[in-house]
Amino acid sequence: MAAVAAEAGLSSGAVYTYVASKEALFHLVFAFGFGELGEGVPELPIATPAFSDTLELIGQGLRKAAASPRLRAALDEDAPAAVAVELTAVVEEHYATIAVLWPMLAVIERCAVDLPDLEVLYFRRGRRGYLTRLTRYVEQRTHAGLFRELPDAAVTARIITEAVTWFAWHRREDRDADVYDDERARRTVVEFVCGALIEPDR
Question: At a CB cut-off of 8 Å and minimum separation 6, what does 48 contact?
Fold first, then answer.
């Protein structure tokens, strides 16, 4: 709270005229980040919610923002008319999601170390669920002869997500934040993944 106060140019005590506790501030971060504050100024100081309410807010925000409809639609399609178009859409969808959500994800990942319920919600359910779906997609297209045969579908899925995550998020917190142009980075990641998985005549 002292660090927050210093960043805001307030005394440590003044922060508590806005939020009743650090738990209330934690909840407020996600209410703001997921666009759930509503109209007008809330009554101050913002009261401390139950942690279960904060978890529910985070869970709903992630489910809404990271629904991945293109990947889910691809999993329901046995024979896409153009697999390159489909894969491009899947990777672009994931890139766009991470590029928008990364400030919230950064807070979640840093705090999950100390909050076991948050760790389960984010790492075991959310992130692992996406990786499972992406792995299944890679397996389906590989078995159909539409993707190159690679040794491990789960590793392939993880490589895709790590490439997307670094360029859409982690580079922004890195010394190389300004080295890469946003649009060129996005296009290069998408084309790299498609080139690695799809034969040129597909």
Answer: 20, 21, 23, 24, 27
Distances (CA, A) of 196 to 12, 34, 80, 191: 52, 34, 18, 8
103/35 Cα distance (integer angstroms): 13
Half-sphere exposure of 174 toward its Cβ, with a 13 Å CA cutoff?
12
pTM score of the predicted model: 0.91
Report the number of distinct structural domains present in the chain: 2
Tell me the CA distances in angstroms from 84 to 110, 131, 170, one per residue in order.
36, 20, 27
For residue range 175-188, what is the model confidence (pLDDT) as tens digits? 878 899 999 999 99
> Following DSSP, what letter does each residue of 47-65 receive, concatenated?
PPPPHHHHHHHHHHHHHHH
> What is the tens place of the pLDDT at every residue in 121-137?
999 999 999 999 999 99
Cα 199 to Cα 74: distance, rounded to the nearest angstrom? 19
Tell me, rounded to whole angstroms, the distance of Cα 4 from its chain centroid: 24
Instruction: Specify whether 72 is located in the same domain as 101.
Output: yes
Domain extent, residue 9, equals 1-49
Mean of all residue pLDDT scores within the chain: 94
43 and 56 in a common domain: no
Please check whether residues 39 and 63 belong to one and the same domain: no
